[in-house]
């Protein structure tokens, strides 16, 4: 089953068209300056430079270190930082830095490999500044004495190419060649037999030269001590020892044992072992027993850090002769590293309208172990929404497989588990928290299908009558609901512009005072809109009902409440109790109990004669008419509604009791005169006072003139004025008792717009009244307009005048 799964993964990886089959290769010399051009990556990848920025191109290295930088504007690949080949690749013959060029929208990969060329930036270095060799004087010419070669970190032609001796001498030459498994060694060759008695020591410099341009060199001092007698050097049982050790071996574990023999005996045959050179510079990880030659671990090894360790062991006998062998330690891998999951890109939050197949995350898995221990497989926990898809090599994509709905699930916890094929297998997991971002896919929903609100008429402007509320299942701006009155309104619905809705809270206000009698109800459509793009909306009908208040007093239709004189209702004196005299008709603009009217008799000339029906307003006789009843009656009917508080109006009626209708005539006056405003009467009184003052002034002047003429006549004729008077009047005048009564009759009609009064000239005993006075009134020509009518008698003085005090006491009808 596992093999079938691996075959499927390989097939899926080969079918992915996202990566280029062949990598793009470049080369660059080490130690290149930062910003040095490596190549035009956009051109070699056949990509327009503009796509690099548009598709968010970036470089992904397997080790996570960015050695190179991509200029998105030009597509040039340049060095990001100084590159040291020896630090990056050690002594490897080739040094290649690999990474991927990752493009998004759509996802695409390009494998890029940059070969790092070595330059001659290191000089050969000998392990020691001074080397001492002890050589028997009996050594034959042609004998070879191994030396520790110089170490040059460079490779190829830049490594050590030749050795030379300076100054040259007659005893030794240097030989540099391959003797052991293709590895070059350096040896001193004895050219002439030594003679300790002639020269006990030989000193010279050994120079190592590399093949760089210009070449670099290193020097060590060689000190030759000529020994006597010991003519056999140690010989190792093997020229090269190979040991294998598990990387999890503990400290102190024996790796292998080297052995050298010497045909000499005694002290010249005693062996001692030591490390002469540790090629891999891992001397701290090994130690050697100088007596037994056992090589042990000083610390656990790490296969992932170094797979092999190369050592050099020197065996020296008691006479100072030595031999060197190579020791190669191979580290065997164990499954001690769990897989690593490195996320390259992760998209969160994810829009809820993302289509199936949308890439959520891109990650790579790797295991530092080798072989089966480094083979990694990935799996998801139980998921119905996401799946894994191989992308390129060890890259995987986390993609959606079904539609998303934020309102149902706002966040997904996705766990990816990576397991290697070791025994036992090691696993690691990474959790992706995928937040689902909201899109505006839900319209607001009102909590009621319709709203009914109430307001009393004569309300205060901008009064709050209720509120609408809508909720949106989305979040953020997509859930922010604003309210407004809909522009569309059905023509058949009663509507007014008096309503307003708060855009934030949904509170509904009545902007002006309403009149129930003009508008009893109104319907508006309130729209709730969210702040999404595009916005979604919902409508609801709000019905406003106006409640009636008792703000209209009853209106009397009959009798008509106009300014003209009221008509009189004619009632025969023979009428019985219950006789219908009249009917007061009134209406009320309010409704309900505020419009229920009741009628009551407020005032009447004879309250016991008339009765008013409380419900119908009919005025009827309470009892039969008698001879004692007045002919003319005035009634005031109160019309009152049933509101709280109640409002009322009055209606004035006039009734005439007649024996028969033949003596009906219209009087000069009218009862309505008493009800007219007092302004016209005031004007008439002022006019009468003015005319009276003029009349008195004229009378006084006339009397004075007459007296003056009388005195002149008496003086001229010597006659007494009294002689010419009638006897009765003369006596009265002489006694000063001439009566001055005046008789007035006045009739004022304000409805007719003029004023009339009758003035009868004074008469007394012995005086004959005028014919029109005896007849009962003056003719039209004998009417004196605007003369005041005194209500008490005022007696003039002897001169026939009235004093001011007496005049001020006058009151006029």
From TrEMBL:
Keyword line: Calcium, Cell adhesion, Cell membrane, Glycoprotein, Membrane, Repeat, Signal, Transmembrane, Transmembrane helix
GO BP annotations listed: homophilic cell adhesion via plasma membrane adhesion molecules
Keyword Glycoprotein: yes
GO CC, any one term: plasma membrane
One annotated GO molecular function: calcium ion binding
First and last residue of the signal peptide: 1-21
Pfam family for this entry, one: Cadherin_2
Subcellular location(s) per record: Cell membrane
Main location: membrane
Bilayer topology: Single-pass type I membrane protein
Name of the protein in question: Protocadherin beta-15-like
InterPro entries xref list: Cadherin-like_dom (IPR002126), Cadherin-like_sf (IPR015919), Cadherin_C (IPR032455), Cadherin_CS (IPR020894), Cadherin_N (IPR013164), Protocadherin/Cadherin-CA (IPR050174)
Tagged with keyword Acetylation: no
